[in-house]
Protein: Lrp/AsnC family transcriptional regulator, regulator for asnA, asnC and gidA
Organism: Paramaledivibacter caminithermalis
Amino acid sequence: MRKKIKSYDKIDFKIINELYKNARASASKIAKAINVNERTVRRRIDKLIETKAIRLATIVEPSMFGYNSIADINLKVDEEVFDDFVEDCKKNPNVCYIAFGWGKANLAIETRFLDNEEMYNFINHTLPETKGVEVVNFFIIPKIIYNIDQWLPVESDFKD
């Protein structure tokens, strides 16, 4: 069984759940909802952020800006160009996710485009014409069903 990195308790669980419902909720409102002292809530939120257990961030909905053409692309990137290619991907406004991979593909990226033609050109021209980069496979994503911003740990992950 995998060991948890940090130890969090049921109060942390309740705070996380309240923030999940409303990330803009005040410490005072959370304290009332979970029946805990407001200072405790503030301190716990600070600790959760400091330990990187949570990030308070704005989640942008790409489709509201017209980015409806989505592709997950698995790539084989040669070691000598890997770091530079990752940096280029980070700067590319169409790339929204980058991860290491194991197996034939050593890099996975999620991309979003304004239209299918842009996506087609990126997959069939831009990437194949990039030295040291091979498209292993890709998936056109017509609809995302469940995303990271909807995930929560389960209560049993927290000690009593």
The mean pLDDT is 94. The CA atoms of residues 62 and 68 lie 7 Å apart.
